[in-house]
Amino acid sequence: MEKIIPENKLLHKTLNNKCLIFFMIFILVFIWSIFLGRYKLSIVDYKSVLVNLPMLILGGEVSDPSILIICKVRLPRVLLASFVGAGLALSGLVFQQVFKNPIASPDILGVTSGASFGAALGIILPWQFPGLIQISAFVFGILAVSMAYGLKKASKDDNILYLVLSGIIVSAFFSALLSMVKYLADPYQQLPSIVFWTMGGLHRANWVNSIGCGLIVIPSIFIINSLRFKLKILLLNDDMAKTLGMDVSKFRNVMLCLVSFVVCYCVSIAGTIGWIALIVPHITRIILGYKNKNIYFITSIIGATTLVLFDDIARCISTTEIPVGILTAAIGAPILGYLLIFKKTV
């Protein structure tokens, strides 16, 4: 017993250090990303931003273009990338734990298909108002999850396979509706907007979207982390989990509803950004292993860092911005192949 206690303390200290290291890396990437952009800023410009920032926060009028670029364009965009990346990565980890499947992702319940159809519908509607696309995407994303649960409940079977099959059915249904909307859309104005939205991007970033996303993602991280013990029990056989006093079906449904809500909100703002929810949990497990209490925090931090870096590449690699969803797919697919062949984690 005397030998085990120091080892546990050393393990606990090591995990805490890893959490601190990843957080410091995220802070460095965050600050570095604010400096990046096609509009070049000098050190003097950044000093001016720091001097005038209190006045800007208090609502004062600022006409300096460097201050406006940093405070109204770059900073909210980097914040939004951080929150969306953290939300998607955390949701992917929870999906993989709940479904006990290393290749599970939020797409499995039709969230992405429903939100994509909602956004496309918002684009072609004859009446337009600010936030219509985001609201429509969010509503139909939630509707897709509700339909998947409705189908599963109609089957009157608690087997999780029925929920997966329900998600596949709902996803196919909304994909067909999305194709119909594309067919009916104006090919010169509306169709390009639909296609660009489904590619994913953070060009809609502003302070309202960034703060709203943060208010959804940050509490979700702490809620999920507080339930980490029950999530570990959920990894066991369902019968064994029931013997430990857990209502497996109810807890699973609550967790899926929570992370689906997070994904719907992220997708409604940033469009379809794939592979973050699938790849980042694998990277976290390679670094930390399967059993530690910091996995949810570190997964969120790595997800935030990853999407911020992808967005930096998307807006700086060429004279025109590349949809970040293209980059996450182009880079994420080879990473998954590497994990499959060499790391055996999939």
Automatic annotation (TrEMBL):
Gene Ontology molecular function terms on file: transmembrane transporter activity
A single GO BP: siderophore-iron import into cell
Record InterPro entries: ABC_BtuC-like, ABC_transptr_permease_BtuC
Transmembrane segments: 20-37, 49-70, 76-95, 131-151, 160-185, 205-224, 254-283, 295-310, 322-341
Keywords per UniProt: Cell membrane, Membrane, Transmembrane, Transmembrane helix, Transport
Topological type in the membrane: Multi-pass membrane protein
Pfam families given in the database record: FecCD
Protein name per the record: Iron complex transport system permease protein
Organism: Clostridium amylolyticum
